[in-house]
Amino acid sequence: MADVRQQWRWKHQQATKLICAEESWIKWQMFFDGWNDGTVDRLGSSFVNKSWNGVWVPQAKYIANALNPTWVALQDQHPNLPLADLVYVTYIKPTAASGGTAKLPVGTGATAFILNAENISHKVLWKVTDGCGNVDQCGKYCNGSR
Q1: H or E element: which one contains 60?
Q2: Which of 13, 65, 82, 114 has most Cβ atoms within 10 angstroms of its Cβ?
Q3: What average pLDDT does range 40-69 have in this prediction?
Q4: CA 19 to CA 38: how far, in whole Å?
């Protein structure tokens, strides 16, 4: 009898996870190392200031020779991913778990997100978190060869 109860609990938990996943949201994080030097140059995230939606906001490590508290907070959120001394940050709006699409702004001028020939070798890491507590990530190294 205990086995039957255990199997029912396991099936119920799995079904609950599926329902949660289908009805949940996805929060996004994107880390872009534009020079393949081990530092994050662009950071898109559903966990940053919502007013940064649709724009790339420059965050310098130092302002007037003092540590920038916003840059420090961003680095503290991602201790295993060193940020560049000047990192551009944007807010990524959470999406539905099913059929949602994350969007990054292109930007204009100095904040434009354009890959120049110098950025031919770069890395991108995407990390997703859903409302059920699941977290996953995938990364891609691009060296420009075809």
Answers
A1: strand 57-60
A2: 82
A3: 95
A4: 38
